[in-house]
Design a protein that fits this description.
The complex is a heterodimer of chains A (about 170) and B (about 500).
Chain A: H1 7-18, H2 27-38, H3 43-53, H4 57-66, E1 78-83, H5 86-90, H6 93-104, E2 117-122, E3 134-136, E4 139-141, H7 146-157
Helix pairs in contact in A: 1-2, 2-3, 3-4
Chain B: E1 3-6, E2 9-12, H1 19-25, E3 49-52, E4 59-60, E5 70-73, H2 77-91, H3 108-117, E6 135-137, E7 141-143, H4 153-161, E8 167-170, E9 177-180, H5 192-197, E10 203-205, E11 218-223, E12 232-238, E13 241-247, H6 259-262, H7 265-268, E14 277-279, E15 282-284, H8 286-299, E16 304-307, H9 314-328, E17 333-334, H10 357-367, H11 372-381, E18 386-390, H12 391-395, H13 398-404, E19 407-412, E20 424-427, E21 436-439, E22 445-448, H14 461-471, H15 481-486
Helix pairs in contact in B: 2-3, 8-14, 9-10, 9-14, 11-13
Classes of the chains: A alpha+beta (about 170), B alpha+beta (about 500).
């Protein structure tokens, strides 16, 4: 599958690049930009971006695989990202993950058949003071418990979380 | 210049010197995995932790600059405990396959385990993270991700030395592993250095894998004859068989060694090594082959010519010069080789593929002779009826030989070397089997040492020339390689 960077993206990227001293410094913002367009980072996209920035492909892939914020496969309408690091873990994240697994009948890294939910566990979201935390797409939901989680799922199912869906 | 005290010994070092290199100057060894003198400092393995007075925590010696008045302790209980703990982490997911690992015997994990740990693992074999064990990565290497401790020496080598950047660390934490782009071969010309610098058994050489336990190998200093760079090497052999060639790092020419240079020993041990003479296409014993060659030379004594070779040692070129001057008493000889020299790829590989053009010129300076152009014109015009030459040097006159129709008598090591149309071929011992002096592109004189015995009946080239001269012309009284040098 051939993949080419759109002119629109290139125009944006050139502007972004100008703000950084080295091409590899602009890598993460450009990857975020690229992911915004397609929702995930295909191999071909990484290849094209590497060529565009004059970086080795392996460098781009290493950065993409390091961060859980980059998706390597298409995700559902709501991407549920439960923090698995120590504060959240101690505050009950494993219970939340187990409940999501059970209610959605999927494992981590999977998407429900209706394409509504993708479940992931991710590294520290930097909100330890409000643990346990779950990020849905770009928004944080903090100090969660099972009741709050259930309500949140219902809201998402019925499209009541405005401005959130992709 | 900062003065630093390490384990009670004080030393003044240049500004910018790290604690690790300062310790090295004092003869204090600090253990390390990720540090390599010729690569950038990464500081990820944490094995080189040392105690610095007034610093709240242990410091990595590889990345800490020596400062004036710094007092360092490298062997306190605190340091030893830290190193033991670091090793425990490094070994958490390390497989216990030392018995089948090629690195065993020269492995950083084994060595430092004996020095610092000797602890029973607290991690059950069943809990270890499993990874792919034998990934063929390119023509020369196999990668075992399970054994890897992620020191990133290989990643830095590919990005800093070869600048090909094939490798990176993918994923993070205990998911991480070394990988290249899918389908892209790790095929740069220096890939085998990765197996050398890998401190554990993650990268192994496909050529050396499972061939020999390293503690059986004997090590002889050598010189690479793959090109005019003339890198210093170390030849690893056992019972007359060469198993691998490693670089012998030195300030003059090389830290690394290229892959073609490492594989050069293959030809010396190849199945097509000549043990007998060849007349046209038929193998015959050396003595009759010599007699046949000599009588062909005698037919055209005054129209015979001798060509030196940049692939031969100074001694063997000198023997050829003696043969021309004192044996055949001809003026038709040339030791004039002046190819373009210099590093081709910015690392090691030279523009000149022959190791000893300068050595041949040294013989020319002493023995005189025609320029290469003059000789090739004489060969092309048909004035020369018989040409005696080394096989690869004869290749330089391929077209002229075809045009002039001179009979070609060549010295060759392998059957595949014999040029088309050669009349007689005489075998000789490789420079793994006989000593020789070579002069590299910088004018540095280097000597090879024999590591293996030549097959029965195969003699060094100077001895073959001595015999040939005895049959045709006159005795040169060559008893040793040194005798050849005397006459010129």
């Amino acid at each position: 599958m051939a993949f080419t960077l759109t002119n629109e993206f290139k125009a944006k990227a050139d502007k972004l690049r100008a703000g950084y001293p080295r091409p590899d410094a602009a890598l993460i913002p450009l990857l975020q930009e690229l992911q915004k367009d397609r929702g995930f980072m295909a191999e071909e996209a990484m290849d094209a971006l590497a060529a565009y920035l004059g970086l080795p492909y392996a460098r781009v892939k290493a950065v993409v695989t390091f961060y859980t914020m980059f998706n390597r496969a298409p995700v559902g309408k709501y991407h549920l990202q439960v923090c698995r690091n120590i504060s959240c873990h101690m505050a009950g994240a494993p219970g939340l993950l187990a409940r999501l697994r059970e209610k959605l009948a999927i494992e981590e890294g999977e998407t429900t058949k209706d394409g509504l939910f993708t479940l992931s566990s991710v590294e520290c979201l930097g909100a330890c003071g409000a643990a346990p935390v779950m990020q849905v797409n770009e928004d944080y939901f903090e100090k969660l418990d099972e009741k709050k989680l259930d309500d949140l799922l219902e809201d998402m199912r019925h499209g009541r979380l405005r401005g959130m869906a992709r | 210049m900062p003065k630093i005290t390490i384990d009670g010994k004080t030393l003044e070092v240049a500004k910018g010197t790290t604690v690790l290199t300062a310790a090295q100057q004092l003869g204090v060894h600090i253990p390390r995995y990720c540090y390599h003198p010729k690569l950038s400092i990464s500081g990820n393995c944490r094995m080189c932790l040392v105690e610095v007075e007034k610093a709240p925590k242990l410091m990595t010696a590889c990345s800490t600059e020596a400062a004036d008045g710094m007092v360092v302790h490298t062997a306190t209980d605190k340091v030893k405990a830290a190193r033991r703990d670091v090793l425990e982490f490094l070994l958490i997911n390390h497989p216990l396959d030392c018995p089948i690992c090629d690195q065993a015997g020269e492995c950083g994990l084994q060595d430092y385990y004996m020095d610092y740990s000797r602890a029973k693992s607290r991690f059950a074999q069943a809990d270890k993270v499993r990874r792919e064990k034998r990934r063929v990565m390119g023509p020369h290497l196999v990668l075992d991700n399970e054994r890897c401790i992620l020191c990133t020496r290989c990643v830095r080598f590919c990005s800093e030395v070869t600048k090909t950047s094939e490798l990176e660390v993918m994923e993070r934490a205990d998911h991480s592993f070394i990988d290249a782009k899918e389908g892209r071969a790790l095929d740069n010309d220096y890939s085998l250095n990765i197996a050398d610098i890998c401190p554990v058994g993650a990268w192994t050489s496909r050529d050396f894998r499972f061939k020999q336990r390293v503690w059986f190998l004997k090590k002889t200093p050598g010189v690479c004859l793959g090109c005019a760079t003339g890198c210093l090497t170390e030849i690893h052999h056992n019972e007359g068989v060469i198993y691998r060639i490693m670089p012998r790092p030195n300030a003059d020419t090389n830290t690394w060694l290229c892959d073609p240079g490492r594989m050069a020993y293959k030809a010396a041990q190849a199945g097509d090594r000549l043990k007998k003479g060849v007349i046209k296409n038929g193998l015959i014993d050396l003595e009759p082959a010599l007699r046949e060659a000599a009588s062909r030379i005698d037919e055209h004594h005054e129209a015979a010519a001798v060509l030196g070779s940049p692939w031969l040692s100074v001694e063997d070129n000198a023997a050829l010069a003696r043969f021309a001057k004192d044996g055949l008493k001809t003026k038709n000889y040339s030791f004039d080789f002046d190819p373009e020299q210099g590093i081709k790829d910015g690392i090691l590989i030279n523009k000149d593929p022959a190791p000893n053009a300068a050595g041949a010129r040294k013989v020319k300076a002493a023995a005189g002779g025609l320029s290469f152009k003059e000789l090739s014109a004489k060969v092309a015009s048909g004035e020369i009826k018989v040409l005696v030459a080394e096989a690869r040097a004869a290749g330089l006159l391929k077209e002229e030989l075809k045009a002039g129709g001179a009979r070609l008598i060549v010295f060759a090591m392998n059957r595949s070397e014999i040029p088309a149309g050669a009349y007689a071929t005489l075998p000789y011992a490789s420079y793994f089997e006989t000593p020789g002096t070579f002069i590299n592109f910088q004018g540095l004189e280097r000597r090879t040492e024999p590591t293996a015995a030549a097959a029965e009946g195969v003699k060094p080239l100077w001895a073959v020339i001595g015999k040939l001269s005895a049959y045709s012309g006159g005795s040169l009284r060559l008893e040793s390689a040194q005798d050849a040098l005397k006459g010129i």
